Amino acid sequence: MSSHPPRPAASGTLPDLGEIASLLEVALRRVETTFDRALQSDLPPVQRLVAHLETYRGKMLRPSLVILSGLAAATPGSSSPSSPNSSLRHSIAPSLLSDAHITIAAVCEMIHMATLVHDDVLDEADIRRQGATVNRLRGNEAAVVLGDYVFSAAYRLCATLPSQQAALLIGQTGMTLCAGELLQLHHRENFSIDEPTYFEIVKRKTGSLIAVACKLGAMQSLGVARLSEPGDSHLADRFEQFGLKLGVAFQIQDDLLDLTGDQGVVGKPLRKDAELGKLTLPVIHHLATATPQRRGQTLQLLEDFGPAAAKKLLEALDSTRSIDHAHGAARELVAGAKALLKDLPESAAKATLMAMADQVVSRAS
Ligand code: FPP
Ligand code: MG
């Protein structure tokens, strides 16, 4: 497959921070075009539903991670210095990004969109990114089938790649995130759910897609054929673990925003998790550490949760420093994620990945 670097660096040189920002911007526009083409339908009512997905488009976190992981892994000397491939790595730098990076980035964004469309049905949500959800506009039936359409298109697009590796990993990720969602459904209204179970759900429903985005981005730069080399295979795994930790931290922050965020800023209905019987990290920590009397009061609050109970729940969580506990867990995960990439040679792509990791836990939307 041919390479179309949006802004070719001179042979052997690597982009600086400013160049990475514009490289990323141009790459993301290409991802959007690939996304739109892959979902195109000849039927106007279907095309209108597809067009509505544009209102769901957010920070493009997953495509950005594919691109930046690809660029960071392409930096000369990224696998261990003793790797027999380190000299080969120099030949990667000039081409920077391939069409496969763009395809994988679009696939990850499409799967993310499909999960959001389905998730809003499960959560009975009527607002996403300040706009109406598909289920609110067209009903649950259309939203379920639109999610299926987008997921099928993503899988089809993935199958256009020359290697089967990406399709295998994406198929596995689809199963993993559905299993995470099913586990969450299984534990709805379970007021004894523990932290390991919460982490299992979150790793699967959110972490898995972010992990595979980082892994596949790096793999495309390393070249699938060379992944049999221990140094390169280890490097791809490190990017995967980086994404997994980042993904879990992202969901903890998402769950914190549900409790403490400002709806106008976040752009979706808040205080919904407790109402739907979904216990998140601060609540799980609180119930495990509160005095029996306080625990009893909180359980009563949760049994009959509504908008009026939100303030009382926050007071209860404060009494056991449970919001701080969840913030601390998210920050620790981000630190662990960054440590995994610490040994990579310095590059603007690595610096941007590190900055993005910090933003995951400092964001307000
Ligand atoms: C967000 O949770 C939900 C997910 C990260 C995963 C949802 C997955 C499914 C519904 C399975 C469907 C799968 C496919 C392949 C189509 P949240 O409700 O906490 O996030 P939110 O606050 O953004 O709504
Ligand atoms: Mg939701």
Largest sheet features: 2 strands, antiparallel
The residue ranges in which pLDDT falls below 50 over 5 or more consecutive positions are 1-12, 81-94
Extended strand count: 2
For the largest sheet, list the strands in their spatial order.
Answer: 1-2
Tell me the span between the first and last alpha carbons. 38 Å
Mean pLDDT: 90
Proportion of helical residues: 55-70%
**SSE string:** HHHHHEEHHHHHHHHHH
Per DSSP, the total helix count is 15
Q: Tell me the β content.
A: under 5%
What overall geometry do the principal axes of the alpha carbons give? Answer: globular
Structural commentary:
- This protein has 15 helices and two strands.
- It has 365 residues and is mainly alpha-helical.
- It has a two-stranded antiparallel ribbon with strand order 1-2.
- The chain is globular, with a radius of gyration of 21 Å.
- It starts with 16 loop residues before the first helix and ends with a helix.
- The relative contact order is 0.12.
- The site of magnesium ion (MG) has 3 residues, from loops.
